[in-house]
Amino acid sequence: MIKVMIVDDNDIVRRGLHTIIDAADDLRVVADAGDGRSAIEAARRARPDIALVDIRMPGMDGLTATRELLALDQPPHVIILTTFNTDEYVDEAIRSGAAGFLLKDSPPDELLRALRAVHSGHAMLDPAVTRQVIDAIADQAPRLTAQEKAQLDSLTAREVDVLRLVGRGLSNADIGAELFMTEGTVKGYVSAILAKLAADNRVQAARLAYRAGLDNS
Amino acid sequence: MIKVMIVDDNDIVRRGLHTIIDAADDLRVVADAGDGRSAIEAARRARPDIALVDIRMPGMDGLTATRELLALDQPPHVIILTTFNTDEYVDEAIRSGAAGFLLKDSPPDELLRALRAVHSGHAMLDPAVTRQVIDAIADQAPRLTAQEKAQLDSLTAREVDVLRLVGRGLSNADIGAELFMTEGTVKGYVSAILAKLAADNRVQAARLAYRAGLDNS
DNA sequence: TTCGAGATCCCCCGATCGGGGAATCCCACA
DNA sequence: TGTGGGATTCCCCGATCGGGGGATCTCGAA
Asked: Which of B113, B137, B203 has the most A C-beta neighbours within 10 Å, making it the best mutation to test the interface with A?
């Protein structure tokens, strides 16, 4: 039996969700709340497996409530509910830790599928939201061009070591200390790197290092 | 009537998908292909609305096939099918332009839902895949720390102009030319920027500009 | 009206960077 | 057993950077 909590300031919506969920054999609503603050308390008492949280609420908004819920000892999974297809919140909701993002006009069985999927550790987004997320990923920085990849591949291992530190904003002297070589040696490497990467200066080389993800490893 | 094409090297899988899809009133399989190359030709002839593409195929793999299909005149939407929950390909599939990513063991009605959602311009991922995608987004670079945000906010508009160009790797002279000011003036701004951002040098300032997304706008 | 913040320019000066060599050393490959 | 590529070090030298001032001018808020 999957225990569900409903958090929505609209009484009618709460009743509607209640009806849909309790009609399923494997789901049961164990708590209700009309605002974020009482949701936290209710969750502490009822220990729901999943919280359905409206994103727009008076007082504590849904995203803040989500973060608070997930900070509990035995946190529920959180599915965000929203009325509109609001670009805005999707990214923030995901970063807040939500495992789902559904529109209130999606059909009841979609809600039930989502509850079950989320309960088994998966996640579910409304198809329209999925489209947004996918487009955002596809539009992300084109990574590296083929040319840039080839340029990076042409670097020797040692040059990559140096580039990594250039990317972090270290001076040649600092890089030398880090890699146990003379500043003069570092300068030689930096020159070689700039030539191979067709970069005018170390900032441009650092940019490439950053985009290639060389800086954080 | 939504026209669907099936691209899979396994004959049994093709038949199975065929049966599932044709059983629906609003869907019809209009083309079949066992490899990427023939899929392109088939798509050109049959003009399907959606192509279901196996990611693993002999010859042209599913992702390459996806890119080729999407390069056609009237490209179909592409849904990737895969047997395993393979971490690997999800990101690349999305970047290749796929509108869906389903596991072959998902229930038939999930496939039908996906086909309909994708046909209406939405997207659908298997819940397990959605979980991966969501986790990846949530784990992404923490953006900026509150402190870094405050530091950026403390910059004047003109300083931001300069920082933007510093982030692109321009020299002070180039920045001056770009913003119609003397190199000396630029140097003054850069010094102020480094002080406000607590950066040791322009590379570190550029890093911050890059992370703040200041460079591409 | 005064005052301060921002934008613009200027100067000096030391530190750092980047280009162009040149010289070892080592190791793999022919 | 050469030969060459990579790693390492050093040199010089001009260009660029960065710090620390000081000087206008404008505009808006006190």
From this structure: B203
- Structure token digits, residue B132: 């991966």
Q: How far is CA B141 from the centre of its chain?
A: 17
Q: From the Cβ of B188, is strand D under 7 Å away?
A: yes
Query: For residues B69 and B61, is the Cβ–Cβ distance under 8 A?
Result: no
- In degrees and rounded to multiples of 5, residue B181 shows phi and psi of -145, 165
B215 class by beta-carbon count within 10 Å (0-12 exposed, 13-18 middle, 19+ buried): middle
Chain A (140-159) residues lying within 8 Å, Cβ to Cβ, of chain B: none
pLDDT at A204: 93
As ranges, strand C nucleotides with an atom below 7 A of a protein CB are 5-12, 16-22
**Distance between the alpha carbon (CA) of A137 and the C1' atom of D18, Å:** 39
Q: Which of A171, A182, A52 is nearest to A104 (CA)?
A: A52
Looking at the DSSP bridge assignments, the partners of residue A124 are A100
Summarised one tens digit per residue, pLDDT across range A33-66 is 999 899 999 999 999 999 999 998 887 888 999 9
Whether residue A141 has pLDDT greater than 70 = no
What global pTM score does this model have? 0.76
Q: What is the DSSP string of A130-145?
A: HHHHHHHHHHS-----
State the burial class of residue A25 (Cβ atoms within 10 Å of its Cβ: 0-12, 13-18, 19+): exposed
Residues B156 and B162: beta-carbon distance below 8 Å: no
| Angstrom distance (rounded) from CA A27 to CA A24 | 6
> Is the per-residue pLDDT at B46 higher than 80?
yes
Contact, B179 CB vs strand C, < 7 Å: yes
